[in-house]
């Protein structure tokens, strides 16, 4: 067992939550590793729960009440100030602006659609060009002469025009 694994298992050892197999492996490691034994003794010496908080005195709660009352009064003043302010004017776009925005959106949509169609046609053209080049290369290759192996009736062809070289 390495030290990193032993460190991960130490909390389980302290809380007595390890399986018997892990417990035995960790004990064996601790017998041979002084650094892990020292770390385990430091972890075991730490208290498991935080120390209890001292009770709050009467002066603490009176200060807390004053702070809360001040914050409530301030928020009430903010609400009253906001209600006294005149309402904000409502902005309404002009019909010409609406028409301009709609036209602009249509033009952008048409441009994006045209660009997409152009890319699709370019991809199709490229695929057709590649297929045509492949067919030209295959048709230019000479037909192979059948090869007869001695002692057998089989013939092997090195090339067939429609499939390419094997």
Describe the structure concisely for a colleague:
With 166 residues, this protein is mainly alpha-helical. The chain has 5 helices and 4 strands; from the N terminus they run αααααββββ.
Description:
By secondary structure, this protein is mainly α. Among the domains are: 3-45, no CATH class; 95-142 and 157-166, no CATH class. Helices cover 66% and strands 5% of the residues. It contains five helices and four strands, in the order H-H-H-H-H-E-E-E-E. The protein has helices spanning 3-14, 20-32, 34-45, 58-84, 95-140, and strands at residues 147-148, 155-156, 159-160, 164-165. The strands form two sheets. A two-stranded antiparallel ribbon has the order 1-2. A two-stranded antiparallel ribbon has the order 3-4. A hairpin with a 3-residue loop joins strand 3 (159-160) and strand 4. The chain is flat and about 80 Å long.
Topology:
Blueprint: H1 3-14, H2 20-32, H3 34-45, H4 58-84, H5 95-140, E1 147-148, E2 155-156, E3 159-160, E4 164-165
Antiparallel strand pairs: 1-2, 3-4
What would the principal axes of the Cα set say about the shape? Answer: flat
Low-confidence stretches: none
Q: What average pLDDT do the residues reach?
A: 82
Main beta sheet: strand number and arrangement? Answer: 2 strands, antiparallel
Radius of gyration: 43 Å
Physical arrangement of strands within the biggest beta sheet: 1-2
List keywords for this structure.
single chain; 166 residues; mainly alpha; two-stranded antiparallel sheet; 5 helices; 4 strands; 66% helix; 5% strand
